[in-house]
Please model this.
Amino acid sequence: MDSRLDMKQVIQSIGCGVALVDPANWELVFENARFFDWFPPSGEDEGRLPQRLAGFDTDKAAQRLQQRGKYSTEAMAHSKGRELPVRIECRHLSMEGQDLYLIEAQDISKEKETQFMLDSYSRLAEKKNKEVEKEKERVERLLLNIMPRQVYEELKDFGTTTPQRFDKASILVLDFVRFTEMTISKDASALVSELNDIFSAFDRIVEMFGCERIRTIGDSYLAVSGIPEESSDHTRNIARVAVRMRRYLEKRNAAHPTQWRCRIGINTGTVIGSLVGIQKYVYDLFGPGVNLACRMESLSEPMRITVNQATYELIKEEFAFIPRGEVEVKGFGIMPLYFLEEELKRSY
Model:
C-alpha cells in the first residue's frame, strides 16, 4: 500500500482539523474532512484561508511565524448547526522541498466550559467573600458601639474579656430634665428622634476628646475618660466634653422650639470595667466611682455641671468653678461640691 495514501487516510480520520497552506498566497493545498466540515467554503472560489476562517489576520500570522515559528489564535467553527470554539495553531512545514504552513484546529469547547465554570465559581466565591466581609464589618461596628476597641480586640482574639480596675478615670453622667413629661405632652416618636440626634452629637464630642460613650439608658448618657487606655488628661478631657455638651444644647435650643435642659455630674475615681452578658454583650462600669458620678448628676441643676472635690482639685487651674458649699451626698456623706462653669482661656 502507498505510504503517502496511508498517511492521507490517517490525517483524514483524526479528530482535529488539519490543513496545508501555501505561504505565498494563503491558498489551501490540502484539508482533511474535519477542517472542511468546520470551515466550509461558502462559494466556489473560497480556497484561501482568510476566506474560510473569519477574522484570520494573515499579516499578523505571517509576522509571528517569521519571528517565533508559531502562531496561535482562536476562531468559531460550525458543527451540526452550532458554533464550536476552536484553537488555530500555525507552524512552518517543509514537504518534499516545498515550504508550507501546517494549520491545526483543536476543539476547545470542554476547555471553555471548564474555564467558564471556574470563572463562575470564582465570581461566586468573590461575591460571598464580599458579603462575609461586609457582614463582619457591620458586626464590628455594632460591637464597637457598645464596647471600647481595646475590649473588642481582646474579645475577638480570646473569646472573652477580663474585668479591669481603673484607678484614674473620670465619669460623666447626663440626664435630661422632665424628659418623661415631655414624652407624654409631645409627639413621642418625634421627641425620641430628636434625642437620637442629640446623642449622636454627644458621641462626636466624646470621640473628639478621646473619651468613651459607655451607654445610654433612656434619656441618660454615661461617658468616661481614662479607660481602657490610661490618660493623664482624663479629668480635663471629660470636663471639656461636659462644657461642649451644654454649649451644644444651648445652641440647639436657640434654633428649635423644643427646649432640652440637662443636668451633668462628673466624678473622678476608681471604676471597674467589664463585659457582661453572654448572648447580649454589654460593656459597663461598676464601683463607687460610677455611683458618685450619678449622685453628682442628681444633685446638679438644669444646664449646670456639678463636680466633687476630687475632680475640682485636678482641674481648678484650667476651669472656672462656683463653690456650692458642703452638701449631703447619699451614701457618701457630706462633701464640698462645685459648679463647673467654663474652660479658662490660656494666656499663651
